[in-house]
């Protein structure tokens, strides 16, 4: 049974497809890349942006960081709210809180943006702590975000489960010695979560609720 539930944001609590793809496209246009294949843009949902610009477009570190700055230029004013909460998430979070679970947001997105999204969509009250990266690049990797949250709260690792839709969430959890639950209703590619070694996998939000509420209420 897990008392502390760490949630990813993009692709797990919300569907950010419109905002992220539009902002990636905006950044690529700055470099003269006119991307029309949205399947390539969709790969940016979940992983750290620096990683994605390097991995999918061959940018070196300097160019990738510049691309992230261009991305944020549009994201801060428009892309941040080109987003929606998945149906059923509010009910899930309420049921977890009612059962005594303590919720933490652990996202690779900059904390300042994540906090605005959580407030805008009225998810903030469910969460004890919002953790993310910083605009200067601090805590860019998911395991760094998870580790920061653990130390901030001073909680035992065997009482934590990380919930996310991409391999980075699962790998980050493993690096920190905590359990993981992958969700298939996000943006994972086929077999991605299994290959990453997720301890549990939920196909739907109802499946996720059953996994996270298994056992007696926690007090």
Characteristic key phrases:
8 strands; 219 residues; 6-stranded parallel β-sheet; alpha/beta; DNA polymerase, domain 1; 2 domains
Please summarize what this structure is.
This protein is of the alpha/beta class. The chain contains ten helices and eight strands.
Describe the fold and architecture.
It is a single chain. The protein is an alpha/beta fold and 219 residues long. The protein folds into 2 domains: 141 residues, Rossmann fold; 65 residues, Orthogonal Bundle (DNA polymerase, domain 1), CATH 1.10.150. It is built from 10 helices and 8 strands. It has a 6-stranded parallel β-sheet with strand order 5-4-1-6-7-8, sandwiched between helices. A two-stranded antiparallel ribbon has the order 2-3. Strand 7, helix 9 and strand 8 form a beta-alpha-beta unit. Helix 1 crosses helix 4, helix 5 runs parallel beside helix 10 and helix 7 packs across helix 8. The longest helix is centred in the first third of the chain and has 15 residues. The chain starts with a strand and ends in a 7-residue tail after the last helix. The mean pLDDT is 94.
Rounded average pLDDT:
94
Sheet with the most strands, sense and barrel status? 6 strands, parallel
Question: How many DSSP H or I helices?
Answer: 10
Q: Measured on Cα atoms, how large is the radius of gyration?
A: 17 Å
Give the DSSP E fraction (strand runs of 2 or more residues).
15-25%
In the CATH scheme, the class of the largest domain would be Alpha Beta
Q: Determine the CATH topology of the largest domain.
A: Rossmann fold
Order of helices and strands: EEHHHHEHEHEHEHEHEH
Total strands: the figure is 8
Q: In angstroms, what separates the terminal alpha carbons?
A: 12 Å
Helix/strand class: alpha/beta
**Rough shape?**
globular
Q: Please tell me the CATH architecture of the largest domain by its name.
A: 3-Layer(aba) Sandwich
Side-by-side strand order of the widest sheet: 5-4-1-6-7-8
Which consecutive residue ranges, at least 5 long each, have pLDDT under 50? none
User: What is the helical fraction, as a range of percent?
Assistant: 40-55%
CATH superfamily of the largest domain: HAD superfamily/HAD-like
């Amino acid at each position: 049974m897990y008392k502390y539930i760490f949630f990813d944001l993009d692709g797990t609590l919300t569907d950010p497809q419109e905002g992220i793809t539009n902002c990636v496209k905006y950044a690529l246009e700055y470099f003269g890349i006119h991307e029309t294949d949205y399947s390539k843009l969709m790969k940016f949902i979940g992983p750290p942006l620096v990683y994605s610009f390097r991995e999918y477009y061959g940018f070196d570190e300097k160019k990738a960081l510049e691309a992230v700055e261009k991305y944020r230029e549009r994201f801060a004013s428009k892309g941040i709210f080109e987003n929606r909460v998945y149906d059923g998430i509010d009910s899930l979070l309420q049921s977890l809180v009612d059962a005594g679970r303590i919720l933490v947001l652990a996202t690779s997105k900059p904390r300042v943006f994540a906090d605005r999204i959580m407030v805008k969509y009225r998810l903030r009250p469910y969460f004890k702590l919002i953790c993310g990266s910083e605009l200067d690049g601090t805590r860019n990797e998911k395991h760094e975000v998870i580790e920061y949250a653990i130390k901030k709260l001073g909680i035992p690792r065997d009482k934590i489960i990380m919930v996310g839709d991409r391999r980075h969430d699962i790998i980050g959890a493993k690096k920190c010695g905590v359990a993981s639950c992958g969700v298939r209703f996000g943006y994972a590619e086929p077999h991605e979560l299994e290959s990453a070694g997720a301890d549990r996998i939920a196909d739907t939000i109802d499946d996720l609720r059953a996994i996270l509420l298994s056992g007696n209420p926690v007090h």
